[in-house]
Amino acid sequence: MVRVKSRYLLCEVIVPDRSRLLLLDDRAVAMSVKAAVARIHGDYGAALCSIRFSVKYLNAHTGIVFLRFPKSCYKLLWSALPFITSIEARGKNIECFLNCLHVGGTIRTCQKFLIRYNTQQLHRMLPKCKNEEEKKQVKKAILKCTLKRGNGEELEEELELSSDDDDEGD
């Protein structure tokens, strides 16, 4: 038996108003992606991407989307993403665009990348914190989203050292 190979695209939905993300559902995202592929690549692209294409995961709070599609047509789908300017969901037109973060062969590799990406975003937020309480909350969030790479105390020490370096720069 031959294994069917797929690609998973990890995308972030960027909207001007974050509250509009809650209106999104997986069917609306799938319809807008299929429409963009059909508009850009015609019937050929629409036919290729309609086979085994699905939205595997959508987090309406963070705007993260996992798209699954056949390995043979991932470049067609990827090239059509910049042309998505809005998604129609629940009778409302949501102005947005999809930012491709990662292309992976499995959902697991996309999840690992997402954990690293979120950790980087939290590290970028750390210097922008205004008080110690915010810094503690961001540090706690960083510890929660890291992969288990041994002892949690090592991670805490690493964070304390990085915060000491930030304090010296002030």
pLDDT averaged over residues: 81
- Structure classification: alpha+beta
Radius of gyration: 19 Å
Poorly predicted tracts of residues: 149-170
Helix and strand run: EHEEHEEEHHH
* Assembly level: single chain
Task: Walk across the major sheet and give the strand order.
Answer: 2-3-1-6
* Tally of separate helices: 5
Overall 3D form: globular
Characterise this structure:
The chain is an alpha+beta fold. It is built from five helices and six strands; from the N terminus they run βαββαβββααα. It has helices at 26-50, 74-80, 107-125, 132-145, 152-169; strands spanning 6-14, 54-59, 64-70, 86-89, 92-95, 97-104. The protein has a four-stranded antiparallel sheet, with helices on both faces. It has a two-stranded antiparallel sheet with strand order 4-5. β4 (86-89) and β5 (92-95) form a beta hairpin. The model is unreliable at 149-170 (pLDDT under 50).
Describe, in short, the structure shown.
With 170 residues, the protein is α+β, with helices and mostly antiparallel strands. The protein is built from five helices and six strands.
List the helices and strands and how they pair.
Layout: E1 6-14, H1 26-50, E2 54-59, E3 64-70, H2 74-80, E4 86-89, E5 92-95, E6 97-104, H3 107-125, H4 132-145, H5 152-169
Antiparallel strand pairs: 1-3, 1-6, 2-3, 4-5
Helix pairs in contact: 1-2, 3-4
